């Protein structure tokens, strides 16, 4: 079995390196305590509790004891009175209990995956030992068929796979598999991988087009992309075939989910992207995280199988999402009803759902689209989501999390307006449904893998992060050392060395935000350059050393949305390089909606230091205006002269909001034409 990448990556980036250190030192230990219900005043997880209960059930089952059958109707099961019941308190009780959401297993798997990316480059015996102990536990629990989903193992094993639509066995399988491959890649230990393969083999037998096989597919997608990853790791074609079956069977008539639930046709199936066959889906619909994961699996299939038709479908879906349904922060899934996409250009700022996991899913998808075709538009979106809609999901200290990432918040609205009850003005310590925190950990832990991709004799640098990548071009070792001061300064340079000569091409992405591109190459001998689809390609013919300076520039600029976006009409958002900025009450006072600026004022921006973030962090002060509230009634003749007070607007990066005092926040601010 081959490792996915043999490259050695050493991340030294000031910005992302700090985040990765945070993941290792703070976030992973914190999340382990959360999974063990040890965070005071936080929503309990029950995740590890459930696994321990499953061991108890399995031991009983192995002794031939009867296991009482429990109802599997619930999507979330809580102990009586919602009280926390640590596993050891239930040991004496007859019946084992599964608590939390049906997909609670996946939080452990995401945590293991995150640990894998850390121990890939740094030794951490404590983290690795914890994973090994959990793998031993999983080995005890997996059934003789190869099935591993704790909800059904505890509650009613014979009912497994009876509710693919609402329950998440295949989703949990997906996360188990992603963790297993990552842990194997990082450590060479294959025990977890073998468990994932056992489960996958069982699924290959159980699901498929054959008579006697189940013709279903996942209610919450993920297994598709996970099976592709397992195929890439093991070379076993049956895993890719099952991924393909799940994708192509989705939405075909007769609709599996309708039959499973004895419901009439056309019952809200677009929520699951199962209303029509995926090859006919031209518009992103339904639950946003599910959609992102489905599109990832489809993109993997398109690439791996050179499937042009599927490639065309994912391109169209990409255009739909990124030109009609994506926030300026890279967040997707605007409505809280169904955590879903609504319709084109519907991007409300204050009621935005914009789940952290959906932005993470968009990063996964963008990375895959880049490998399908190297066009910088995919990397631009990946960068936008990463620096903004993803990073806003975690506090600067790594112990508080947002599930929902609005672009406008007024704390009183969160408390008093039922329509905004999903919006929070403070990050939470944990969630009963905690999909986002460990998803953040696994993405931020694995970030260096998203900074580049390779194919044949070309290395594409998609995101700029300081560090070194040792890879192979034309069978010769090449080291690529990037120096980047992003996101605070546009300075980027790349040094390429190859003792046996560099034969091949290095492609540097030209970011959409860069207002300059004045490239220079420092190297002896012949080389060729060209610009194509937003990348600057430099081809070498055996040099041992070269330095590339792309000459990017960035300055704060106001962006406006397409006029079709009602919610942002007449407004503007400050952007500098990859970062979107916002105003917070702490720096600007109450009533952020009364603050406006001339679009040109961005050129008069003054940099400020933001020590609450770190010593490099940059904010901006921009001259603007404040509208004083009238002291006459509610409605005033518009012809009456308005009073405007000149003020200085203080902008901070959006991702860093809600790390100080609670207050208003706003990304889109009023636009005022020059008087
Ligand atoms: Zn989530």
Please state roughly what percent of the residues sit in beta strands, choosing from under 5%, 5-15%, 15-25%, 25-35%, 35-45% or over 45%.
15-25%
The largest pleated sheet is described as: 9 strands, mixed
- Count of separate structural domains: 4
| Principal-axes shape call | globular
What is the C-alpha radius of gyration, as a whole number of Å?
26 Å
Question: Which stretches are poorly predicted, pLDDT < 50 over at least 5 residues?
Answer: none
- Bound small molecules, deduplicated: zinc ion
Helix content: 25-40%
Explain how this protein is built.
- There is one protein chain.
- By secondary structure, this protein is α+β, with helices and mostly antiparallel strands.
- The chain folds into four domains: 19-46 and 86-100 and 291-297 and 306-445, no CATH class; 104-249, no CATH class; 451-553, Immunoglobulin-like (Sandwich), CATH 2.60.40; 557-671, no CATH class.
- Helix content is 34%, strand content 19%.
- The strands form four sheets. Strands 1, 5, 6, 7, 8, 9, 11, 12 and 13 form a nine-stranded mixed sheet that branches.
- Strand 5 and strand 6 form a beta hairpin.
- Helix 1 (14-35) packs antiparallel against helix 17 (436-445).
- It is globular.
- The protein starts with 7 loop residues before the first strand and ends with a strand.
- The model has no long low-confidence stretch (mean pLDDT 94).
């Amino acid at each position: 079995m081959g490792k996915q990448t043999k490259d050695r990556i050493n991340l030294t980036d000031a910005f992302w390196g700090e985040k990765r250190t945070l993941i290792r030192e703070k976030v992973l230990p914190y999340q382990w305590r959360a999974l063990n219900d040890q965070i005071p005043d936080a929503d309990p997880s029950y995740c590890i509790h459930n696994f321990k209960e499953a061991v108890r059930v399995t031991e009983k089952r192995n002794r031939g004891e009867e296991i009482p059958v429990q109802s599997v109707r619930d999507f979330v099961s809580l102990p009586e009175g919602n009280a926390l019941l640590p596993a050891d308190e239930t040991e004496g009780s007859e019946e084992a209990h599964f608590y939390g959401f049906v997909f609670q297993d996946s939080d452990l798997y995401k945590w293991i995956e995150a640990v894998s990316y850390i121990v890939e480059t740094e030794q951490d015996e404590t983290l690795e030992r914890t994973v090994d102990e959990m793998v031993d536990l999983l080995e005890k629990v997996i059934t003789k068929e190869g099935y591993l989903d704790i909800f059904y193992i505890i509650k009613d094993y014979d009912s497994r796979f009876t509710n693919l639509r609402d329950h998440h066995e295949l989703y949990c399988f997906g996360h188990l598999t992603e963790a297993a491959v990552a842990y194997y890649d990082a450590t060479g230990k294959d025990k977890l991988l073998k468990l994932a393969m056992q489960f996958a083999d069982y699924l290959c037998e159980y699901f498929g087009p054959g008579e006697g096989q189940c013709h279903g597919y996942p209610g919450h997608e993920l297994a598709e992309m996970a099976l592709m990853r397992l195929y890439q790791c093991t070379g076993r074609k049956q895993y890719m075939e099952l991924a393909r079956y799940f994708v192509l069977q989705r939405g075909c008539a007769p609709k599996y989910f309708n039959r499973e639930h004895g419901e009439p046709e056309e019952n809200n199936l677009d929520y699951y992207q199962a209303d029509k066959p995926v090859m006919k889906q031209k518009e992103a619909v339904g639950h946003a995280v599910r959609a992102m994961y489905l599109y990832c699996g489809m993109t993997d299939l398109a690439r791996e199988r050179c499937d042009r038709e599927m490639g065309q479908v994912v391109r169209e879906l990409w255009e739909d999402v990124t030109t009609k349904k994506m926030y300026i922060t890279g967040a997707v899934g605007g409505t809280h009803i169904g955590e879903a996409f609504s319709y084109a250009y519907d991007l409300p700022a204050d009621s935005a759902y914009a789940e952290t996991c959906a932005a993470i899913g968009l990063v996964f998808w963008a990375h895959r689209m880049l490998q399908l075709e190297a066009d910088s538009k995919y990397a631009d979106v990946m960068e936008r989501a990463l620096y903004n809609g993803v990073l806003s999901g975690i506090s600067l200290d790594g112990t508080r999390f947002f599930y929902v990432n609005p672009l406008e918040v007024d704390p009183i609205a969160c408390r008093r307006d039922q329509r905004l009850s999903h919006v929070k003005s403070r990050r939470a310590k944990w969630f009963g449904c905690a999909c986002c925190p460990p998803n953040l950990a696994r993405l931020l832990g694995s970030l260096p893998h998203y900074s580049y991709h390779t194919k044949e004799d070309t290395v594409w640098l998609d995101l700029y992060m300081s560090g070194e990548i040792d890879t192979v071009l034309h069978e010769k070792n090449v080291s690529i050392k990037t120096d980047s001061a992003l996101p605070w300064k546009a300075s980027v340079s790349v040094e390429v060395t190859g003792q046996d000569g560099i034969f091949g091409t290095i492609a540097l992405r030209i970011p959409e935000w860069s207002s300059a591109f004045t490239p220079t190459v420092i190297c002896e001998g012949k080389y060729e350059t060209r610009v194509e689809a937003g990348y600057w390609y430099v081809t070498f013919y055996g040099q041992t050393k070269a330095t590339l300076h792309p000459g990017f520039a960035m300055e704060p600029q106001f962006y406006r949305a397409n006029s079709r976006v009602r919610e942002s009409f007449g407004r503007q958002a400050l952007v500098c390089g990859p970062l979107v900025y916002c105003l917070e009450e702490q720096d600007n006072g109450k009533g952020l909606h009364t603050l406006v600026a001339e679009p040109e004022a961005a050129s008069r921006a003054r940099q400020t230091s933001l020590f609450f973030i770190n010593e490099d962090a940059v904010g901006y002060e921009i001259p603007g205006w404040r509208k004083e509230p009238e002291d006459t009634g509610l409605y005033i003749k518009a012809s009456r002269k308005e009073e405007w007070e000149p003020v200085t607007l203080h902008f901070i990066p959006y991702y860093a909001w809600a790390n100080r005092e609670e207050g208003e926040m706003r990304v889109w601010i009023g636009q005022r034409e020059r008087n």
